Amino acid sequence: MSAKNTHGKGGSAVSASKESLSFAYISALLAKLSLNHNKPEIDDQSVDVTVYGRKFDGAWKEPQLQLQLKCTNKKNCFDKNSNEIIIDLTNKNYEDLRATSPIPKILVVHHAPDEQSDWVKENTYSIELMNMSYWYILRGFPKVDGKKRIRIPLAQRLDSESLLKMLEDTSHFRLINNLELNNVK
User: Fold this and answer.
1) Beta strands 64-72 and 78-79: pairing type?
2) Phi and psi at residue 119, in whole multiples of 5°?
3) Which long-range CB contacts under 8 A does 44-52 form with residues at least 24 apart?
4) N or C terminus of the chain: which is more exposed, having fewer CB within 10 Å?
5) Closest Cα partner for 119 from 60, 15, 111?
6) Residue 135 · residue 106 · CB < 8 Å
């Protein structure tokens, strides 16, 4: 996608379309797992969607997760040597996500193909959302001045299994932890 192309075929900003793609990915997982969600009318706490579980077997029967959704289609966002996806966060998002909260706050980064026309594959029988989302917990990370570059292990794919495990951990009051720590530069 060229730098000049800031709007899609329908006229909306590509940045708004990226937000829609991220939410479509999450929505598909929620539908598969029969989970509920809520989108705040005002996003002033770096929460784009709250996921709700029901009838879990832990002490908290209705666990919740708060997700901050990001989407990138940058080609250079992967570090192939360390198997990580790299994203820069605003200071506000970083500070909101690292704050201690009774409901886990999770950064979710969706990687989309470079060309917007490749984001969704369609055929007679199905549609397929292209590429993958990854998750990361910033709870308890140190205050960082300047640019917040987050490095997320590619092993932290957000899929139905990882989403369900996070809700199960929350139901049992277990902390959700990253596979790697201190990935902020």
Assistant:
1) unpaired
2) -65, -35
3) 45/96, 46/92, 46/93, 46/96, 46/97, 46/105, 47/96, 47/105, 48/19, 48/22, 48/23, 49/23, 50/103, 51/26, 51/163, 51/167
4) C
5) 111
6) yes
CATH architecture for the domain at 14-171: 3-Layer(aba) Sandwich (3.40)
Phi, psi of 75, deg, nearest 5: -70, -30
Measured CA to CA, the distance from residue 10 to residue 7 in angstroms comes to 8
Could you state, in order of their start, the residue ranges of all structural domains in the chain? 14-171
Alpha-carbon span 72 to 78, nearest angstrom: 11
pLDDT (tens digit per residue) in 97-146 = 999 999 999 999 999 999 889 999 999 999 999 999 999 999 999 998 87
Give the pLDDT score at 2. Answer: 43
Q: Is 60 exceeded by the pLDDT of residue 181?
A: no
Q: What is the mean pLDDT of residues 7-32?
A: 85
Query: 92-95 long-range CB contacts below 8 Å, 24 or more apart?
Result: 92/46, 93/46, 93/68, 93/148, 94/138, 94/141, 94/144, 94/148, 94/150, 94/184, 95/143
Cα separation of 112 and 133, whole Å? 9
pLDDT (0 to 100) of residue 182: 46
The helix-helix angle for 160-171 and 14-33 (nearest 10°) equals: 70
66 against 45, higher pLDDT: 66
